[in-house]
Amino acid sequence: MIHNLALTNSVLNQFIAEIRDVEIQKDSMRFRKNLERIGEIFAYEISKTLTYAPVQITTPLGIADTQLLMTPPVIATILRAGLPLHQGILNFFDKSQNAFVGAYRKHHRNNTFEIAMEYFSGPDVTDKVVILCDPMLATGSSIVLTYKAMLAKGTPKHVHIVSAIASQEGLDYVRAHMPTTHFTLWCAAIDQELTAQAYIVPGLGDAGDLAFGEKQ
Fold first, then answer.
1. CATH number, residue 141
2. Mean pLDDT by 10 residues, the chain (216 residues)
3. Which domain holds residue 31?
4. Class of residue 18 by CB neighbours under 10 A (exposed 0-12, middle 13-18, buried 19+)
C-alpha cells in the first residue's frame, strides 16, 4: 500500500514546498527543521495504524479511560540524510529503539554507481514494527538493501517506509523487490522523472548536502 499525503491538502504541503525552494534551501537549519516537521507528520499518520490497549489514568480528580500504544516501533534511518526526518519521527515515538544504516552511492568512472552498504546498527527487530526513513526514495535500491541487511537482526512484523519525496520508478522498484508483503510506503510527493544519475526531478537536490553541508 502507498500513502501519498500530498493528495490531502494540509500544512505538510508548505514544508515540502520549502525544502524544494532553492532560496529557502540556503538556510540549512530551516531545511533540517522542515524535514523534522515532516517526520512528525508521518509519525502521527503511522500512529493511527498501530496497536493500542485500554488503560486507566489517575488524574487529580478521578480516573480517565484511554487507549495507549502497546509497543513503540523501531525507527531506522539511512545516514546521513535521514537524520532530521528520523528525529521528527522520534519526537513522537520517544520510547522507540533506533537503528542506523551506513549506505552510500559508490560512483564509477563510467558515470554509473552502485549502492554500497557499510553497516547496520540496531536492536533485534523480530516481530516488531519498523519505520525505515530516508528523505528521498530515488531508485529504491538502498531501501531494499537496507531491509535485507535488517533481516540479520530478525524478521519484523511490518515495515513502514517513509520518504518525503519519492520517484514513481523508485516506488515501483520497492514494490517489486521487497521480499515481504508486510510493508507500507509513505510519501509526501511523488515525482515522475528520474535522471540518468538517479536524481529525482523536480525533486530537491541532495538532501544530505542541504542538511549538513557538501561532502568531499
1. 3.40.50.2020
2. 94 97 97 98 98 97 97 93 96 96 62 62 93 94 88 92 96 90 94 87 93 84
3. 2-202
4. buried
